[in-house]
Amino acid sequence: MRILLVEDEVKLAHAMKRALELQKYAVDVVNNGKEGLDFAIGEEFSLIILDVMLPEIDGIEICRRIRAGGVHTPVMMLTAKGQISDKVTGLDVGADDYMVKPFSFEELFARIRALVRRPAQTNDPVLGIKDLTLDPKTFTVKRGDKLVELSAKEFSLLEYLLRNKNTVMNKDQIISHVWNYDSDVLPSTIEVHVKHLRDKIDVTGQNSLIHTIRGRGYTIRE
Question: Cα separation of 78 and 101, whole Å?
């Protein structure tokens, strides 16, 4: 899952990026509102985290513009302000959630999980197909009763395919959702990760769950 973090406090942004990456998210960080708006409109993200007080364009205005432009990505607002009026303004322009600094990373992670589940309108966070299950909350993957150990990128790739199961995802779509903007990812990198993922989740004697659709991309299905 790919997150855009727009935060002008460099130390906080760096700490949040590291913490989120440990939770297996791909994170793009920008430190001013203009660049944040460009990223939010021009790239695909699973979640946008916006500070309210930003140079050039503030977070409220960014949220207003992306909603007006038809971007429906979940938005979480961050601010040092605690007044009710600030929260109301953020929510009124289209934000989905609001956190006041300082906050704990544990609460941040929990709210992120709630936001990314919301579009699917399901109370069950566990993804799966056949006897393969992936729990985004505990970062565990199982094939039957057997625990499968995956790298961070393998986990993110599998999660993305499961969230779009039975749909063919091309390499550009996979790169934009699993890797951050600064990553130098070649098409062959996707092939390598898919191979490693197959090696770990497939069962001997059974067909692979991940299918290569020549010239189009990959899909996960029975």
Answer: 7
Of 37-41, 124-128, 146-150, minimum mean pLDDT range = 124-128
Q: Which domains does the chain have, with CATH numbers?
A: 2-120 (3.40.50.2300), 127-220 (1.10.10.10)
Burial class (CB in 10 A: 0-12, 13-18, 19+), 187: exposed
- For the full predicted model, state whether its pTM sits above 0.85: no
One-letter-per-residue 3-state SS of the chain: CEEEEECCCHHHHHHHHHHHHHCCCEEEEECCHHHHHHHHHHCCCCEEEEECCCCCCCHHHHHHHHHHCCCCCCEEEEECCCCHHHHHHHHHCCCCEEEECCCCHHHHHHHHHHHHHHHHCCCCCCEEECCEEEECCCCEEEECCEEECCCHHHHHHHHHHHHCCCCCECHHHHHHHHCCCCCCCCHHHHHHHHHHHHHHHCCCCCCCCEEEECCCEEEECC
Of 9-23, 93-107, 111-125, 165-179, the least confident: 111-125
| pLDDT for 122 | 44
